[in-house]
Amino acid sequence: MDWDVVNPKRDWPKWEPPPDYKPMGGFGGGNPLGGPAPFGEEYFRAWRTKEETVRFMNENSGVPWFIQCSFYKPHPPFHPPKKYWDMIDRSRLVIPRYPPDDLEDVNPRLEQQMRSRQLTDLSDDQILDAMQGYYGNLAFCDALFGEVVRALEEFGLTENTLIVHTADHGEMLGNHHLWTKFNFFEESVHVPLLMSFPGSIPAGRSSDALVELIDLFPTFMDFAGLDTPSSVQGRSLHPVAIGGTDKHRDFVRSEFAGGMLMNFDGRYKFIDNGKDILPELYDLKSDPLEITNIANAPEHQPRVQMQITDLRDWAGQDVVTAPYNQAYYNMLEDRKKGGVTRRR
Questions:
Q1: Cβ distance 218 to 235 under 8 Å?
Q2: Which of 78, 150, 181, 324 lies 20 to 30 Å from 27 when distance is taken between CA atoms?
Q3: pLDDT tens track of the chain, all 344 residues?
Q4: Cis peptide upstream of residue 96 (ω within 30 degrees of 0)
Q5: Nearest-CA neighbor of 274 among 332, 233, 318?
Q6: How far apart are CA 63 and CA 155, in angstroms?
């Protein structure tokens, strides 16, 4: 069964696949990378999330609320409803072309992951199928989000509602010969952030400020007129959002299980791949596509050594990251020994 087709709740309709149906599980296993779904919008969990969001707003329009309306799409599998698949003009899609040796100077885990998921040596038609499905998923989500916003207007809630549209990660979509996420290339780690609050956030304002997703919680608290607990690591985006400043952070950081860490200061992106793997350093001013890893360049050694020290010190002090990474390392060691570590 497809990941999108969930067990019915309330009076949701249940889709029964025909005998010859081949699940579109997304990546790996030889399944199609993209194509129109054989079922209607109402069978997608994203559609049902929209329905539940609108229902909740309608039933609670007289009291303060917070809603996380989290659509599963555009996540794989790339099989939007046929209506949105057909919206995408396949002739306008441009397949990413990168040097054949593009991954030779990066973490070898990335290429190994693609091989394990059977995502290497794809034909142009397979890539175009995935691209059309992904953009079709985006069109589907745009339409669903539009319905949520229209419902806000119908309920008379637009003027006193902060709307934030963002994502937890991007999609490589063939860039750097990669798919999915699990890396620090821009296509994976750089996500959209759109905010609307009539009377507070100027319409049409944009900012190049460096921000992190952990900044959202204190931002919500600020706009709601509430105090943020001192233990919170994020910084409120309220001053940036209302146009008071374009300065927020000197750098942003990201992390992935196993001690892989990233620091980006708006120009240089440094990636610590661990003790036994070459780090990565990219100058996005001269190399915006992140083609050339310059971590071995003699003139950048002071920067590399400083970043390794700072990032590892930071990760070791974090109350969440440090024990989680240690548990991850323990799991890897157990696997090498043939054992199993279970999370409690």
A1: yes
A2: 324
A3: 344 555 445 566 666 666 666 666 556 555 678 999 988 898 898 999 999 999 999 999 889 999 999 998 999 889 999 999 999 999 999 999 999 999 999 999 999 999 988 899 899 999 999 999 999 999 999 999 999 999 999 999 999 999 999 999 999 999 999 999 999 999 999 999 999 999 999 999 999 999 999 999 999 999 999 999 998 999 999 999 999 999 999 999 999 877 799 999 999 999 999 888 999 999 999 999 999 999 999 999 999 999 999 999 998 887 665 565 666 556 656 655 655 444 43
A4: no
A5: 332
A6: 12
Ordered structural domains, the chain, with CATH: 1-198 (3.40.720.10), 251-344 (3.30.1120.10)
Cβ neighbours, 10 Å, residue 336? 8
- Please give the model's pTM, rounded to 2 decimal places: 0.87
Kind of pairing between the strands at 260-264 and 163-166: unpaired
Neighbours of 342 (CB within 10 A): 6
Q: 184, 271 in Cβ contact below 8 A?
A: yes
Q: Helix 321-336 crosses helix 301-317 at what angle (to 10 degrees)?
A: 100
